[in-house]
Amino acid sequence: VLFATEQERIKAKCVVPTTPTSVIKWGVDFPDLSTARARRAELRAQLGFAETDRVLLYFGRLHSMKCPRETVRLLAGFALDRLKLLVVGPDGDVTQAQLRHDAASTGWSGLRTEGPVWDDKKYAYLCAADGYISLSHRENFNYTLGEAMMAGLPPILSAGNDLGLEFIHEGFSWQLRDDNPAGL
After folding, report:
1. Please, which residues have CB within 8 angstroms of residue 40's CB and are 6 or more apart in sequence?
2. Band of the pLDDT at 79, cuts 50, 70, 90?
3. Which of 49, 54, 92, 101 lies most in the core, judged by the most C-beta atoms within 10 Å?
């Protein structure tokens, strides 16, 4: 049985206790970052972000399991003018409109939402951010985390991100002890 992360294998041990297992991490493309500064400046200007703003990127489908509404409410609660959240991904059981409503109900103007982006266009959004955030309840790998790290973004992760446990002691990420976003 093959797994994407060691944590995924540990969780499955009770189901496959004597079955041979192996971990094969998924490959992530190495992006061309030669134009990263220009892409960053261009997209930030389009989104209304200043260079001095600190932009966190939520990148993935909008699903309640991934806690996008909790992420918006949490960051809005910090009430820091320079803190911004860029949400990129398709609507699911949570919508961009709900996220904008959540931000507006707190008076926070730091949220920007975009629908899904693909291929080379996604790297412009990765370049525009200063960090990646995923407060998901469960991510067996989290491919967008891998892409964000390849673009040089330090991650903020909930305990539900199995890939995060692969580098928890490396010092370049901020990982919550449990899946409660209030712990942030």
Report:
1. 127, 128
2. confident
3. 49
| 133 phi, psi to nearest 5 deg | -130, 130
Q: How far apart are CA 58 and CA 72, in angstroms?
A: 10
In 34-125, the DSSP E strands lie at 54-59, 83-88, 111-114
Half-sphere exposure of 179 (CA within 13 A, CB side): 10
Cα–Cα distance, 13 to 78 (Å, whole number): 39
| pTM summary value | 0.92
Cβ–Cβ under 8 Å, residues 64 and 94: yes
Does residue 87 have a pLDDT over 90?
Answer: yes
Distance CA 129, CA 112 (A): 12
159 pLDDT band, cuts 50/70/90, is confident
